[in-house]
Specification:
Strand order of the largest sheet: 7-8-6-5-4-3-2-1-9
Number of helices: 4
Number of strands: 9
Order of helices and strands: EEHHEEEHEHEEE
Strand content: 15-25%
Largest sheet: 9 strands, mixed
Distance between the termini: 19 Å
């Protein structure tokens, strides 16, 4: 879907994710996080089928798969180089705004969703990436809807609102954003590819994937190790 930076993946084509329903789009670990994060953190969200919780060390193997799988990285310039992966492995756990999507029924980690302050146009930017075996089942839509709704009040950005960026060629990602009620607001070129900025409705993502429950922050926000 939207663009994911180092930690997750998005659909804009930068180093992040492809943002498709089962793809990725997110901004994540890789850069240092300021001592005072603009994200109310930690937080845990609950939907009908998923728990979205802070990324843990045990989630690193799943993250590595997302960073190196050619299908996930299709709109992100290809698999992340091994030396970059090693750096990300050390810094991805606990990043403010980065959620692991965990299935209720079996505890499986399906993917990552990230909400980051001050995105492409100053709005909060949501991105995500899901493992290919879980594509096409609505998990990405359910998770992105919950995180986008949470981010509206929990992430402080210079420009009000929540957005996502995806490559124009990423049709699956664009269909997902359309289904959530996000609307195209800008076209631009970046990383050598045409991009589309989508803005979510002010009252929350449309569709059946509204969060069923929400807890957070669960304690004082701690400086993240990096995103």
């Amino acid at each position: 879907m939207a663009s994911m930076q180092p930690m997750t993946a998005g659909g804009n084509g930068r180093d992040g994710g492809d943002g498709r329903d089962g793809g990725d789009t997110a901004t994540a670990p890789g850069r240092a996080v300021p001592a005072r994060t603009p994200v109310d953190w930690p937080a845990t969200l609950t939907t009908a089928r998923l728990t979205l919780r802070p990324v843990e060390r045990a989630d690193v193997p799943y993250a590595v798969r997302l960073w190196t799988d050619p299908r996930v990285r299709r709109y992100l310039g290809g698999p992340v180089p091994a030396d970059v992966v090693r750096v990300r492995e050390r810094h991805c756990a606990g990043v403010p705004g980065a959620f692991a999507a965990v299935r209720h029924e079996d505890g499986a980690v399906l993917g990552l969703v990230v909400a980051e302050a001050d995105g492409h146009d100053g709005r909060t930017e949501v991105s995500y990436q899901f493992l290919p075996e879980h594509w096409g089942r609505g998990y990405a839509r359910e998770a992105v809807a919950a995180v986008a709704a949470w981010a509206r009040g929990a992430v402080r950005s210079p420009v009000p609102g929540v957005a996502a960026v995806t490559q124009r060629a990423n049709r699956r990602s664009r269909r997902l954003l359309d289904a959530l009620g996000a609307v195209p607001a800008d076209d631009f070129a970046a990383w050598g590819e045409p991009q589309v900025l989508y803005v979510f409705p002010a009252t929350g993502p449309a569709g059946p994937a509204e969060p069923a429950g929400l807890t957070g922050p669960t304690g004082p926000a701690e400086p993240g190790p990096g995103r």
